[in-house]
Amino acid sequence: MSDITTVLNKKYFDFNDIVTLLSIEDEIHMQKIFNKSLEVKTKTIGRNVYLRGLIEYSNICRKNCLYCGIRKDNSNVNRYTLTHDEVMEAVRYTYKNGLGSIVIQSGELLGKTFIDIIEEYVKEIHSTYPELLITLSCGEQSLEVYRRWYDAGARRYLLRIESSDKILYYKIHPHDQYHSFETRKKVLNDLRTTCYQVGTGVMIGLPDQTVEHLAKDLIFFRDLDVDMIGMGPFIEHSETPLYDRRSDLWPLKKRFEKSLLMIAILRIMMPTINIAASTALASIDSQGRQKGLLAGANVVMPNVTPFYKKVNYRLYENKPGLYLNESQNLKTIHDGIKDYGEHICYNDPGIPLHYKNNNF
Ligand code: 5AD
Ligand code: SF4
To answer: Is pTM, for the whole model, over 0.85?
Structure first.
């Protein structure tokens, strides 16, 4: 298929090029794409892997995303919010182990109490560990709130678009005031006007999703000119409405392969951004993160939530490392990566070259 080589040698991929690459199913041609992506990564940002400690602060959420295990209407979930000591211990652990950034992720809550608490944590973490870069993933908020959190010391914000196609978006979210595609896009655009390093992403292998949808997602990332991407396979959860569509899903292997292809094509399109090898990859394949890195990713996010709490933060089933404690979890990740020719950068926030180039 000389087509692929021709496409891979292009300077700029259009929609049809991306569809061509994403449609590839045979190992040999997929490997060509991974090789090209690894070559691009090696030349531009090097084979450096940055680590982030992920704190799952609270599984209380006001939303009802149809795919997510901690959606508001799932009454089987034991709801928790980490205590101050648990948060600060996780931060201390992150810092002590040289992970360059701490990510505070939470179910989406609005309201003064939540906003104030996050602001207080950001201030405390920033003053206690000034070198630790603070990343937030706390859902859709107003521009004013994002600015307050930035002023408190946060520097990165992650908010996945989930799907850039409006019709598909409404197939995976209820159609109501809490789940508006227009708001999601507006909030991401708001974030782009701030000084945050901005990350977004999608799930891969959703019911009714096609390679055309995925190609559109990649173009959406390029148009938004984001600094970071986290994307991974959709994994059905039995306590969610989308579980009813499980017989329509791509097999797990295909969802996994398409996720690697998405990473690889994006790395070629946007060589200087940060791309995470998502945890969901590791829930399908024990070598999932490593394969993600070889496909072009450069970020891994070990979970530093106390293990007795994180069992309740189950967005999808078969989440890896759920019953390991933090240090077992970190060691598994560390040992898993170092044999793959990647260099783990400790004590380095790994600011995306893309952001540096645009802002300095
Ligand atoms: N499968 C895979 N990823 C999921 N997420 C939520 N539910 C699932 C699922 N069932 C992802 C969403 C969200 C991120 C925190 O986790 O993309 O933005
Ligand atoms: Fe809440 Fe996020 Fe789950 Fe949606 S994906 S229900 S916003 S935690």
So the answer is: yes
